[in-house]
């Protein structure tokens, strides 16, 4: 299991090793906010990345790499390929997913991207509250704290709301900023 330094499990995550999906697949990934139709990383059908990886475009959410559950014995090959991809310091968000896809290794990705836990802040000039995110509310109770939240000079760090993408929503309506 890999948990980034900014992750704060709200319960012991060891149960993830016993889930049927992990037992079957040997790897569990969490989706990131970004989708090829709405991405800041340009991992869309026109990206040269797909030629570089010698694989066709795959229409799925990008990967959050802050928490991973991997059976290292069963998945040594994609871990080594990830290491090869990560040699240059350009980030790691999708490297695991690309290695697993490129080598055709099985993995399970949670059904929807994380929700966003944060606070609704009312601005005197705007009658509608602004949602200030503070943490990714990951499926299975793993939370990723956003350092951006702490830079906002909040004195009360409690969460006042959660915003979530629902799988029933068509991807054309999905937009994360």
UniProtKB/TrEMBL annotation:
It is found in: Endomembrane system; Golgi apparatus membrane; Membrane. One of its GO terms (cellular component) is Golgi membrane. GO terms for molecular function: alpha-1,2-mannosyltransferase activity. Its main location: membrane. It comes from the Eukaryota. Keywords: Golgi apparatus, Membrane, Signal-anchor, Transferase, Transmembrane, Transmembrane helix. This is Uncharacterized protein. Belongs to the MNN1/MNT family. It comes from Phytophthora megakarya. InterPro entries: Alpha_mannosyltransferase.
